TrEMBL record:
<dbReference type="Pfam" id="PF03454">
    <property type="entry name" value="MoeA_C"/>
</dbReference>
<feature type="domain" description="MoaB/Mog">
    <location>
        <begin position="169"/>
        <end position="308"/>
    </location>
</feature>
<dbReference type="InterPro" id="IPR036688">
    <property type="entry name" value="MoeA_C_domain_IV_sf"/>
</dbReference>
<protein>
    <recommendedName>
        <fullName>Molybdopterin molybdenumtransferase</fullName>
        <ecNumber>2.10.1.1</ecNumber>
    </recommendedName>
</protein>
<dbReference type="InterPro" id="IPR005110">
    <property type="entry name" value="MoeA_linker/N"/>
</dbReference>
<dbReference type="GO" id="GO:0061599">
    <property type="term" value="F:molybdopterin molybdotransferase activity"/>
</dbReference>
<dbReference type="GO" id="GO:0046872">
    <property type="term" value="F:metal ion binding"/>
</dbReference>
<dbReference type="InterPro" id="IPR005111">
    <property type="entry name" value="MoeA_C_domain_IV"/>
</dbReference>
<dbReference type="Pfam" id="PF03453">
    <property type="entry name" value="MoeA_N"/>
</dbReference>
<comment type="pathway">
    <text>Cofactor biosynthesis; molybdopterin biosynthesis.</text>
</comment>
<keyword id="KW-0808">Transferase</keyword>
<dbReference type="GO" id="GO:0006777">
    <property type="term" value="P:Mo-molybdopterin cofactor biosynthetic process"/>
</dbReference>
<keyword id="KW-0460">Magnesium</keyword>
<comment type="function">
    <text>Catalyzes the insertion of molybdate into adenylated molybdopterin with the concomitant release of AMP.</text>
</comment>
<keyword id="KW-0479">Metal-binding</keyword>
<comment type="similarity">
    <text>Belongs to the MoeA family.</text>
</comment>
<dbReference type="InterPro" id="IPR036135">
    <property type="entry name" value="MoeA_linker/N_sf"/>
</dbReference>
Length: 393
């Protein structure tokens, strides 16, 4: 059985080995995608010497005689004569020949012209100060954020080469599952069909609507997986990862000729998790049926696979523990934590693998390595849930 770290790495490598599919999209549609090519600036930044203040741009000794005005957007000719200046606006192109810029509020205007002291730190930006034309600013594999879009626009781009979004589909297994109403009489509500597509969408996938649970027969499992694979790059399934009387996932994978990238991992909870590669190169993530374990498998296997498939890295952030968290022997313990106002990661109660009460308040799972205990004050990796910033506390 692979360690948890090995399982993550295997999933990332399996995704990274798939040849990329690239498309070019307008900047306005690029948010959330991944750069397929390095972002190389098409221009010097700034492209022209730029005033960073409102004031006077003059040449030679003062007082300066005012000979004109340069606004942002103008393309001024040079100042040819010593003792002259132009009124200049923030963002305006600095005329050739200018030797100093004086801020408006640090100047005085008299009958003989303009006087004032230029600051030691020049109030204009030189050509190429931020970047030189042809310079690589971001590498391929960088997630496209609004900040990246803004940078690309200022570099002269109107579209970006990005990875195609991945199509994901979820199949829910379990005849005991109800899709509406109250649980009872041996039946529970399906807590994964409504939840996992939303997590997958947050990882950037296009997710097909979920169908009602697949019947607990081998034939129904094979048919559902085969059909989903015709549409999706990644099929996730829930339940049936063990070897109970109606656990059909492994036999279905065998019938379909799948090979395992990961077949169980030394992690608690969620060890029956799996990732399989189907003939044709598509993937199936087998998430255990216990609802928290399914999400553990999602962050453990599916997240690094998706990172690999989109050319992203799969590094984990770190958090400082605010409370002691027991280890799980030679298994990695993924412990639900929330970030409290003290900035520390605190273990959450209600963390049983069949429960979602802790998960619903969590930022992710603190990673307690094999053979260790988590003690308050130590720094550990966090396997994060894909939350939005306002959801982090
Ligand atoms: N003999 C053993 N039995 C089990 C072991 C073991 O080591 N030996 N491991 C347990 C662990 S750990 C897990 S996790 C589960 C994984 O089982 P499956 O992936 O085969 O899942 P199911 O048996 O189908 O379901 C398990 C549990 O989860 C409930 N479930 C399933 N799907 C959903 C859903 N969509 N929403 C809500 N709840 C769901 C299901 O009703 C069961 O209670 O195996 C243990 N058994
Ligand atoms: O690993 Mo199971 O996921 O403990 O419930």
């Amino acid at each position: 059985m692979l360690t948890w770290a090995e399982a993550r790495a295997a999933c990332h490598a399996a995704g990274a080995a798939v040849p990329p599919v690239t498309e070019t999209v307008p900047l306005g549609l690029a948010d959330g995608r991944t750069l397929a090519e390095p972002l190389v600036t098409l221009t010097d930044l700034p492209a022209f010497p730029t005033s960073s203040v409102d004031g006077w741009a003059g040449r030679g000794a003062q007082p300066w005689r005012v000979v004109g005005r340069v606004l942002a957007g103008d393309d001024p000719g040079p100042l040819d004569e010593d003792g002259t200046c132009v009124e200049i606006a923030t963002g305006a192109s600095v005329p050739g020949g200018v030797t100093a810029i004086v801020r408006i509020e640090e100047s005085s205007t008299g009958p003989d012209g303009v006087r004032g002291e230029a600051r030691a730190m020049r109030d204009w930006r030189d050509v190429g100060e931020e970047a030189a034309r042809g310079e690589e600013l971001l590498s391929a594999g960088t997630p496209v954020t609004p900040g990246v879009i803004g940078l690309a626009a200022s570099c002269g781009y109107h579209a970006l080469a990005v990875r195609r979004p991945l199509r994901a589909e979820l199949l829910v297994f379990g005849d005991e599952l109800l899709t509406e109403g109250l649980p009872g009489a041996g039946r529970v509500r399906d807590a994964l069909g409504p939840q996992l597509p939303a997590w997958l969408a947050r990882y950037g996938c296009e997710v097909a609507p979920v169908e009602p649970p697949v019947k607990d027969t081998l034939e129904a499992h094979i048919a559902a997986i085969e059909a989903a694979l015709t549409r999706a790059d990644l099929v996730c399934t829930t339940g049936g990862t063990m070897h109970g009387p109606v656990d059909h996932l492994h036999p279905a994978l065998a019938a379909l000729g799948a090979e395992y990238v990961v077949n169980t991992a030394k992690v608690r909870p969620g060890f029956p998790m799996l990732l399989a590669r189907l003939p044709g190169g598509k993937f199936l993530g087998g998430l255990p049926g216990n609802p928290q374990s399914a999400v553990v498998a999602l962050v453990s296997l599916v997240a690094p696979l998706l990172a690999g498939l989109t050319g992203r890295r799969a590094d984990l952030p770190r958090v400082t523990l605010g409370s002691d968290i027991p280890g799980r022997g030679d298994y990695t313990h993924l412990a639900l934590v929330r970030l409290d106002a003290d900035g520390l990661a605190h273990a959450l109660p209600h963390a049983g693998s069949s429960m979602l009460r802790g998960l619903a308040r969590a930022v992710g799972f603190a990673v307690i390595p094999p053979g260790a205990h988590g003690t308050a004050g130590t720094v550990v990796e966090l396997a994060p849930l894909p939350l939005y910033p306002g959801e982090l506390a």
